[in-house]
Specification:
Elements lengths: L8 H12 L3 H34 L3 H48 L4 H6 L2 H43 L1 H8 L2 H38 L1 H6 L3 H50 L8 H42 L19 E9 L5 E10 L4 E5 L6 H7 L8 E6 L2 E2 L5 H6 L1 E5 L9 H5 L8 H10 L3 H4 L19 H15 L3 E5 L7 H15 L3 E5 L3 H4 L4 E6 L2 E6 L3
Parallel strand pairs: 3-8, 3-9, 6-7, 7-8
Antiparallel strand pairs: 1-2, 1-4, 4-5, 9-10
Helix pairs in contact: 2-3, 2-5, 2-10, 3-5, 5-6, 5-7, 5-10, 6-9, 7-9, 7-10, 9-10, 14-16, 16-17
Amino acid sequence: MNNKVLIKTGPLYKRLFTYVRPFWPVLLLGIFANVLYSAIDAGFTYMMRPFLDKGFINIDMPFVKLIPFIVLIGITLRGLVSSLGSYCMTAVARSVVKVLRQKVFAHIVHLPADFYDEATSGQMLSKILYDVEQVAQVSADALTDFIQNICLVIGLLTVMLVICWQLSLMFLLTIPFVGLIVTCTNKRVRRISHKVQETMGEVTEIASEAIEGYRVVRIFGGEKYEEGKFNQATERSRQNDMKVAVSKAVNVSGVQFVIAIGIAMIIFAAIKLSSIIVITAGSFLAIIAAMLQLIKPMKTLTTLSATIQRGLAGAESVFNLLDLTTEKTQGVVLAQKSVGEIQFRQVSYAYRQAQPVLHKINLLIEAGTSVALVGHSGSGKTTLASLLPRFYEVTQGTITLDDIPINQISLISLREQIALVSQHVTLFNDTLANNIAYGRLDVTRQQIIAAAKLAYADEFISKLPEGYNTRVGENGVLLPGGQRQRLAIARAILKDAPILILDEATSALDSESERYIQAALEQVMKNRTSIIIAHRLSTIKHADKIIVLQQGRVVEQGKHQ
């Protein structure tokens, strides 16, 4: 997102309010409690007039006896409504954060593959964690403080006008100048807040890369380099935070200076016009007290604007992500399993704003046959296989499955027909059983074990102390490469899809494991349409057809012989 283009605040608030709306009863209760809290504070300021006039100057004993009860009831009630208001506002804020985080996560998992090619996991985590948390501050702390302080300012100004409107009007002359200072600093804070979010994304990104790639970092002695990168990112983050702090400081000191001028003008006028404007000692003290009390809420409101701008910048960042187009899921739902005949007709593909990587591919893969894709790295093998499950949409031409163009088939229905075993096995920090049964809620333990036996995974799983209930660690770090590969094959066997894509599926295996896996794959590939991407001859020699790709073009095809 270009930071120079800031979304107007009105539509942003409106959109943010759609997430707050479902919790409106709790929000209204919180607002009412905060308004009451401010009214009690303003009421105490007003009561200084009778407290002084009737308690010390024109003594009224029945009223004096009531003063302790007024103070006790007022302070107790003030404490209760303050707690209620804070609780309600926090409840609304945390609910909004929960909904936003769920929505952002659900949106991210449906974004197309080319988004993942460009964005880093660190940047996405920063949006889910940091940016959404900034929105929480607007929804809870900022909103609570805003309501309390704006009501207190209104209450105190009302008290001043009721006691002596002539003097109070002088103070009101300062309000436009306060507004001018706040408006100027708001724009700057909003702009810097976007930079704060960017640097937080950098910090998260560097940290997650260093943690994930810790083996490479250590073996190549990259610790100092990573520390340097991280330190620079955190320093940039600190500098941007300090820019926000400077803006806040200028804001607060400017506003306080303007308020001080207003108070000085009133005191000066009261002394000069004492013969014209007659007020009691209690009234004068109440006005001065109200003005002095105004400094704190005015200060809070000016510092609050920085928090609100940060929250709005966070909301803007989150909404920009939510506005990205997700994968197109609609289409024909296949009534039964596909036969598995695949045809590529004049298929070309280019990554975003780049030269085409595939050029007019024509290819027929008959149902139940195995086709091997071979060629140098970068020849387009993986890209070609990635077009079938529509990880990427073809730039030109069509791909059909059983004579139906795949872009007309529902995405869920299409992907139900395909199982994938890739070179980089993805395992989740869960049990072995749940990793094999990933995405399937309808399978029994017997089916999981049967799939594991076919993939020759049962032999090592059964030796583990907790067997199929063993947790594998993040991305299966607790398992050797060959075992991870066998789990991925077991997962594909269990899915029982009519089409199987094997992307360098045996690359991580030693010769012994490969013999096992090769036998397992032969079982799996029976009566299935299989697309095999491989470099090893042993993997492809039994394929029904071998396709040779070079620079995105089919240059040869035929049997191994």
